[in-house]
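Consortium newsletter contribution from the modelling node. Members have asked for a concrete example of what our holo predictions look like. Here is one, prepared for the FE3-S4 cluster complex that several groups have been discussing at recent meetings.
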Amino acid sequence: MHLTPDEQALLDGELGPAAQKSMQILVTLGRIYGAERMLPVGSVQVAGVSYDNLGEAGLAWLAEMAAGGGQAQVFTTLNPAGMDVENYQSLGISEDFAEKQRRVLAAFASMGIVTTCSCTPYLFGNLPRFGEHIAWAESSAVCYANSVLGARTNREGGPSALAAALTGRTPAYGYHLDENRRPSLHVKVTANLTTTIDFGALGKAIGDRMQTAGAHRVPFITGIEAASLELLKSFCASIATFGGVALFHMLGFTPEAEAHPPPTEVLTITPAELEAAKAELNPAGGDEIDFFSLGCPHLTLAEIQRIARALQGKQVRKEFWITAARPVKSMADRMGYTAIIEAAGAKFATDTCCVVAPIKGRFRVMATDSAKACYYAAAKNGFVPRLLSFEDVLEEATR
Ligand code: F3S
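And here is the predicted structure:
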């Protein structure tokens, strides 16, 4: 693998042990995947931030990198943490957990990493340009960056993302290279899609079929008539969850789609398959809901506005988390949306979400409009999911 003199100096430890360790990780990865060189990255997004996932071993690793002089060489932001840093008590997070989570965030901050704690960094400043090489870790954000923004990233793990942050480099393989961005499967959608649950179900339907169609296929999707930022965000989270997809092209909506002819192998997704996917995401049926959550991936300001309008003058009847990035909530504060939502009894769970917070077993049935949240709330937290449309979550919570 060719290294520039600067990269070799990093590997030789001339910039300290944290940078050296980082370069060792990247060179090893590059060798495994056959990379011929390193690429400079424009930004990094690090996942594995919740103490619930990291544990003491993860925290010790971060402390070691910080003590070894690790400093972010490019703009680097964080995925959600295990708690709302300012409001964890009202979410039922213990002081013991909070203390450990604060140590994790302090370690990241000491390395110059911005503790934004959100899976939608593209909503507030970590917005890569078309064609830019980046090293991101959160699967939904990776899919959004590759597919909707046209940036180039593999799905990094926690250590490789941190290594990219501390060196400003990533090995040139996978979705950084033109040849791996070409579509290989034409997905024809014959259903009409309008809501986040439609797009979440589409992500699951395609994702499930991709599992049998072979790993690392790039779908070329046609038949979609409308797709807003919010719908694409929901779709990216779902297709990444159920199909491990990090890049797709959607004709009419994503920047690289027009550059490619449709692949000859065709897979058709029918309205019946979409309904079947929704049914699978809704095993709770009519069971009583004791937890409501909106904001997977983290909400846009437009979505918070819709929540405020729906909750104005009403009361929610159960625990209800609104998950968003703190900069987006700040805008909601200014617009008065936060006050309306909190007066209705719902709680902002900023910096975190219903999946990465340490709330395993605390609720029985969780209602959400997110296919990804349905999957992980069941797999990680033991909740029975109930997939409802965005408006129906609000309606059910206030009836
Ligand atoms: Fe984000 Fe948590 Fe969903 S990290 S994509 S809100 S599971």
